[in-house]
Design a protein that fits this description.
The protein has 325 residues and is an alpha+beta fold. It is built from 10 helices and 14 strands. The protein is elongated.
C-alpha cells in the first residue's frame, strides 16, 4: 500500500512538471507560459528525478517516458557558448572586455565589487541596481573609469549605469530611458565606435516585464549599427522576453553563459549549478563577441558576466572625444 501511494505521488509530480515544461514551449502565446519557460532546465531535472524514482519503483513505461522528456529538454536547451564563426577575420584585432553585474541595491560589502572590477580590468562596466547607496561607493572608480553615465530613478532598487575607460563619442551623447532601466553610451574603441547598452528588465508575469519590453521597442529599434547589450533581463535566454528584445534590436543572443542568479536564502556555492541564467548579452554589427562567461562571485545575488569582444574595421569617420562629466 505504501509503495502504491509513493508511486502515485511521484506520478503526479512527474505529470505536473512535464505539463509545466510543455507549457513553457508555447511561451509566445501568453506571458504566464513564458514565466514557466524560465524554469525549463529545473523542470527538466525534476521530471528526470521522477523518472529515476519511477524506475526504482519498477514502473518502467512511465520511467522511460519521464527520462526521455528530461533528456530531450536538457540536451535541447543548454548549448555551450561558441565564438562567432569568422570572428576577428582580417588580421589581428584589439580585444576589449566588458563586465556586466547586478550590484544588488543593498550589497553588504561594496569593496568586494570594486575589487572584482579591479581584478578583471574590463574596458567597460554595465551595472544594474545602482541605488542611492551605490552612487557614492562607485566614486573610487572615477580615476580608472572617468567616462560614465549613471541614470536617475525614483525606484529604491536603483537604476543602470555604464562606466568606461574608453571615451564617449562627442556629438552622440549617452542617454537614459525607461525611468533609468535603460542606458546607451556610444564609445570609442581605438577609433571604432560601438554603442554599449545597459538594461535591467523587471520581473516576469504576473509583473510588468512584457509591458516594459514593449515600451522599450522604440529605443531598441533606434540603436546604431554596431551594438553590445548587457544586463539583468530577469529572463532566460530561451524565453520569449529575450527573443522579443533581440528581435526589436536586430540583435544576436549569446547562448551558454550559464546560471547567474540564485536567491540569497540558498548557498552561494549552488548559484553556478542550480541558479537561473537571467543575465544576458546581445550584439550586432561589426562587433564580434569572442567569449561570454560568468566571473568570480562579487558578493551580489548575481554573478558577473565577462564578455570579450573585438571590433572589425568600418566606415567610421574621425572621432572627436568628449570627457564625461
Amino acid at each position: 500500500m505504501a509503495k502504491s501511494r509513493l508511486e502515485s505521488a511521484v506520478l503526479v509530480v512527474a505529470v505536473g512538471s512535464a505539463l509545466a515544461l510543455a507549457g513553457g514551449y508555447f511561451n509566445d502565446l501568453h506571458p504566464a507560459l513564458d514565466s514557466l519557460a524560465h524554469f525549463r532546465l529545473h523542470l527538466g531535472a525534476l521530471t528526470g528525478a521522477c523518472g529515476v524514482a519511477l524506475l526504482l519503483l519498477r514502473n518502467l513505461a512511465a520511467a522511460a517516458l519521464a527520462l526521455v522528456i528530461a533528456a530531450a529538454t536538457l540536451a535541447g536547451t543548454y548549448t555551450p557558448f561558441s565564438a562567432k564563426a569568422g570572428a576577428g577575420a582580417g588580421g589581428p584585432a584589439a580585444h576589449y572586455r566588458l563586465m556586466q553585474l547586478n550590484l544588488r541595491f543593498d550589497h553588504h560589502d561594496p569593496a568586494r565589487v570594486l575589487s572584482t572590477i579591479a581584478h578583471e580590468k574590463p574596458d567597460v562596466v554595465t551595472l544594474d541596481e545602482v541605488s542611492i547607496m551605490w552612487r557614492g561607493k562607485l566614486d573610487p572608480l572615477k580615476a580608472s573609469y572617468p567616462y560614465r553615465i549613471i541614470c536617475q530613478t525614483t525606484n529604491p532598487i536603483g537604476a543602470v549605469a555604464i562606466l568606461s575607460r574608453r571615451p564617449f563619442v562627442e556629438g552622440r551623447a549617452p542617454r537614459c530611458a525607461d525611468r533609468g532601466s535603460f542606458a546607451v553610451a556610444p564609445i570609442d574603441f581605438g577609433g571604432r565606435t560601438a554603442e554599449i547598452v545597459a538594461v535591467h528588465l523587471g520581473w516576469p508575469w504576473p509583473y510588468g516585464q512584457t509591458e516594459q519590453v514593449a515600451d522599450l521597442g522604440r529605443e531598441l529599434e533606434t540603436l546604431g549599427d554596431t551594438v553590445l547589450v548587457a544586463g539583468d533581463f530577469n529572463a532566460a535566454p530561451w524565453s520569449a522576453t529575450v527573443r522579443n528584445v533581440a528581435r526589436a534590436g536586430g540583435l544576436e543572443i549569446a547562448r551558454g553563459i550559464g546560471p547567474t542568479w540564485l536567491h540569497r536564502a540558498l548557498p552561494d556555492m549552488l548559484r553556478r549549478t542550480i541558479g537561473l541564467p537571467i543575465d544576458q548579452v546581445m550584439w550586432k554589427g561589426r562587433l564580434d563577441v569572442l567569449n561570454a562567461v560568468t566571473g568570480p562571485n562579487a558578493g551580489s545575488d548575481h554573478l558577473p558576466v565577462i564578455v570579450d569582444f573585438t571590433l572589425r574595421p568600418g566606415a567610421d569617420g574621425p572621432i572627436a572625444l568628449a570627457r564625461a562629466g
